[in-house]
Amino acid sequence: MASRPSHQLLRTAIRAAAPRVARSYSGLARKATISPISSSFKTSYRGIKTLDFAGTKETVYERADWPLPKLQEYLKNDTLALIGYGSQGHGQGLNARDNGLKVIVGVRKDGESWRQALEDGWVPGETLFPIEEAISRGTIIMNLLSDAAQSQTWAQIKPLITKGKTLYFSHGFSVVFKDDTHVVPPPDVDVILVAPKGSGRTVRTLFKEGRGINSSIAVWQDVSGKAKEKALALAVGVGSGYSYETTFEKEVYSDLYGERGVLMGGIQGMFRAQYEVLRRNGHSPSEAFNETVEEATQSLFPLIGANGMDYMYNACSTTARRGALDWAPIFEKANLPVFEALYKSVKDGTETRKSLEFNGRKTYREDLARELEEINNQEIWRAGRTVRTLRPEHKA
Ligand SMILES: NC(=O)c1ccc[n+]([C@@H]2O[C@H](COP(=O)([O-])OP(=O)(O)OC[C@H]3O[C@@H](n4cnc5c(N)ncnc54)[C@H](OP(=O)(O)O)[C@@H]3O)[C@@H](O)[C@H]2O)c1
């Protein structure tokens, strides 16, 4: 146990981290869906922010630049055709609908996503269509199929993306790795990216809380001269609070790298290795789990999120601080070659090819579920289930 940061400290940290975006946007959104759009509304920019990120100046675009009437006015002649209804389709689609934009969904008829879309209130023949029909009806084609499906369906989809439409992605994957995916957009359409930095479920919950997710935006092809502006508007439309400009390449490299690294693969590997050594040395499952996962997720990681690493260190005992300071560079050195190998594997397309092969299988859902069930059955996560029952908020 490192130490117990006081609840007061935690509360202060969380307050300090509270978002500065307008809190009322989703409430405003709900009202706006039933209010007529003001025709006298003027489309003026309030400006963008240039911020100093550790000595590097970067531009950040904020939702406040797009008050709802301006957003609705800007997109009043557009139909957002959301193709695919996985986690991003759900989050982005419902947010855009609540923001009063004209949205339709296109998915395989009677598939899992069709069923999900029906549950969320999309109406067959009005706002829910088979994929091809939705693309034909849309002006902004938001390709939110799984990355493997984007490649598999491209030959059917491409001819429907006609001149003047806008092609939108939430990942640079398909176009950047075109040698493997064969996704080459038609030359006469704008191609833009809005990539929320989080799961589609978070895209939705942050929006409903009146906050907004951080997103990356980028332009691959600007035919109209307005591609970037459209990306910024759509980022707000689907629920972003702040948008950071990048390129398709940088977005896909960093995204594939991050999720395989610290965000998912790395953290599972690190948790498991630490737990395993504790167990080999005679510690009980509960002790090993508490010292590895529970304290991390419930106590210390939120402090890093709120105010940074030094803040978390300072919230812990001097004994913990001394030891962590000594061991951090050792872990860094041991991990650097792994991260170098990972980045190379991302950039040279190895990760893309693996993903296309695996997720392109007919059995991709079952195959993924089988491997995830293996994780679920690892002792560390079985121990975790019992530990979680002891939390005050747990309901039997
Ligand atoms: N999830 C995230 O955290 C996240 C974050 C940022 C960006 N993104 C990006 O957002 C995009 C969508 O990701 P996602 O996670 O929301 O979706 P996903 O779960 O990867 O994909 C689900 C959708 O793809 C459809 N699909 C799969 N195979 C198909 C096929 N052969 N033909 C037609 N449809 C098929 C599914 O329809 P059925 O139900 O009919 O199979 C479902 O609607 C991707 O580019 C992803 O990289 C995801």
How would you describe this structure to a colleague?
The structure is a single chain. The protein has helices at about 5-15, 25-30, 70-75, 85-100, 110-120, 130-135, 145-155, 175, 180, 200-210, 225-235, 250-260, 265-280, 285-305, 310-315, 320-345, 350-360, 365-375, 380-390; strands at about 50-55, 55-60, 80-85, 105, 130, 140-145, 165-170, 190-195, 215-220, 240-245. The protein has about 400 residues and is α/β, with parallel strands linked by helices. Helix 1 packs across helix 14 (about 285-305). Mean pLDDT is about 90; it is low at about 5-25 and about 25-45. The longest helix is centred in the last third of the chain and has 30 residues, at about 320-345. The chain starts with 6 loop residues before the first helix and ends in a 7-residue tail after the last helix. The protein has a 10-stranded mixed β-sheet, with helices on both faces. The chain binds NADP nicotinamide-adenine-dinucleotide phosphate. NADP nicotinamide-adenine-dinucleotide phosphate (NAP) binds near residues 108, 152 and 196. It is an enzyme of class 1 (oxidoreductase). Belongs to the ketol-acid reductoisomerase family. This is Ketol-acid reductoisomerase, mitochondrial.
Quick synopsis:
It contains 19 helices and 10 strands. The protein has helices at 7-16, 25-32, 68-74, 87-98, 112-119, 131-137, 147-157, 173-176, 178-181, 200-208, 227-237, 248-260, 265-280, 285-307, 309-314, 318-347, 350-359, 364-376, 379-389, and strands spanning 49-53, 56-62, 80-83, 103-106, 128-129, 140-143, 166-169, 190-196, 213-221, 240-245.
